[in-house]
Hints:
The complex is a heterodimer of chains A (515) and B (150).
Chain A: H1 2-23, H2 25-43, H3 49-60, H4 65-90, H5 99-110, H6 114-147, H7 152-169, H8 174-189, E1 191-192, E2 199-200, H9 214-232, H10 252-274, H11 280-294, H12 307-322, H13 324-330, H14 336-347, H15 354-359, H16 361-392, H17 397-416, H18 419-437, H19 443-466, H20 472-475, H21 477-514
Antiparallel strand pairs in A: 1-2
Helix pairs in contact in A: 1-16, 2-4, 2-16, 3-4, 3-9, 3-14, 3-17, 4-5, 4-6, 4-12, 4-14, 4-16, 5-6, 5-12, 6-10, 6-12, 6-13, 6-16, 7-8, 7-19, 7-21, 8-19, 9-17, 9-18, 10-11, 10-12, 11-12, 14-19, 17-18
Chain B: H1 6-29, E1 33-34, E2 37-38, H2 42-62, H3 74-94, H4 96-108, H5 116-137
Antiparallel strand pairs in B: 1-2
Amino acid sequence: MVGQMTGLETFLHNIALGWQTAISPATLLYCFLGVLLGTAIGVIPGIGALATMSLLIPFTFYLDPTVALVMLAGIYYGSTYGGSTASILLNLPGLPHNAVTCLDGYPMAQQGRAGVALFGTTVASFVGGSIGIVLLMVFSPMLVSVAREFRQPEYFSLIVMGLVVASAITPGTLVKGLAMVVAGILIGLIGTDIYTGAFRFTFGSIELMDGVTIVALAMGLFGVAEVITSIGNAGVDKMYRRIGLKTMVPTRDDVRRSWFPMVRGAGIGAFFGALPGAGGTISTFISYAVEKRISKSPSRFGKGAVEGIMAPEAANSAGDQTAFMPTLSLGIPGTVNMALILGVMVMHGIQPGPRLMAEQPGIFWGLIMSFWIGNLLLLILNIPLIGVWVRILTIPYKLLYPAILMFVCIGVFTVRYSPFDVFSVLVLGAAGYAMRLLEFPVAPLLLGFVLGPMMEEYFRRAMIISRGSFWIFIERPLSATFLGITVVMLVWSIWSGRKAAQRERLLEQEGQSEA
Amino acid sequence: MYRRDYRDIFGGAVLLLGGVFVVAYATSQLQIGSLNRMGPGLFPAALGILLCLFGIMLAVPALFRQGTLPSIEIRSLVFVLASILVFGLTIRRFGVAPAVVAMTLVAALADWQFSLLKAAALAAGLAIIAVLIFNVSLEIPVEAIRWWGK
Lengths: 515, 150
């Protein structure tokens, strides 16, 4: 009983400490800037949170690490709030997260209910985000206490699991995803080997001895490649609707229909967000399917059913928050955005992992408490600013992309004032564009890049402990569990890929016989 | 529609070649060591073998199925990359503002809708923004404009 009391006391103490950090003027300001910028870039199709976060990494060197993380995190979850705007008004998702919202959001806009839809998704994002933060606060300390038992084999197996799950779930074939993970790990190994001092894949270049920077990699593969693809098809309509506050008032029926979908969506999103590798997009599809299945009138879906936007939007916002769980507690990022956050933490000399919560509670809890402020700001900001966000949609892309390229170039140059990094962005941008053409998913590559060096280190140490026997990964129960899940995911992914291919072949044959 | 899926055949071939190169580099330039005393080459060599396997798994089935080819946006590709190249070549010698102007003018060529006047106005605007952010407020150690002879 006494132990529980002190446990609760430390919990409350930590929350108070986090709150103090989060409420300081600098943190508040950068939290505000982060969520504002996040919403803006979420609104515009063709600029993602990842590209924006990597653009801002060079700026974070001028900031206190906590403040920098608060800002980058704000961009990340803020973009999910904004992403639904284009889905609803243009039938064009601002981010992959928000693709499902098109299904019922766009029909609502066509029925003249765009205001209600935009208001609804903002509220759903807030409710989902809040539930996500509560779960993050409650479960992170538990996860940390489990993770204290982790040794090198567990970490190695967990990383393998995260990487395999990430490539099994991303669209496209499993082989391509896994190949990108391996390529990412290899790029991560470029530079000086910390154990032996040997130079690996440096080809005599002094710049490569420190390895490829995450800034250059993310900006090239995501930023530059995205610009090249988007210039060609920047066909955003010049449609502009005035959306006043009055048109946003939902009917009583809307409100009644929204509660449970929001809560269910948040639950589904929170679960998938916390899994390493799963990410937010899949949870939006699942929560939409669930709502359609349990609805008494499933025929309304796809024609402007309010449940069809509330559940997925709550799901992706809840997932955004719980995604921080494996990142902050274990040091294992589940998604690319988290990989970038982790990369920034390491750059600022913060070692994420189970010890972070105990050793630097100010950063850990400060960041989490800033999510409350950020979500509240988003709720307050978005409702009066919806008109402004709608107007942002009309900025032509040809004015945006030179500005993006400028920030890419100066940003990457200022990391170490070396034109070498600018040229590596050029090469990586070309590579990223080639990957898009060949339909290789880029996200697993970045995950592999961040996790690869850690993976090698844990593997090496595990091998030293076990004297070169692989048995160590299987005789330890937790490690064996992670590897078991990995095998199940692989089998499932191969099986479902086969089934999809069969279905396609059947459809093709039918089409041919009809013709 | 083509008789074979050339996209995945090409993708698989790239993976296979990359894998062969990695294995060759790791085994010739780095020490492999043993499992309980891993050298710097062991992990990359293992990954290189995996890359070869994935390349074969991708390319071989693609030989026996139909496929389409992607269309390449050559204009965007060339001018976007060229603008980055121009920036990299000019930033040290001429400073922030000239480099931004030069790169914007090149980048504008990627979109056929740009007139010279509009592109010049955008270049000037971006140069001012860049100098205000990076030179005035962040005070990076690179001059805004580097005059000749200095």
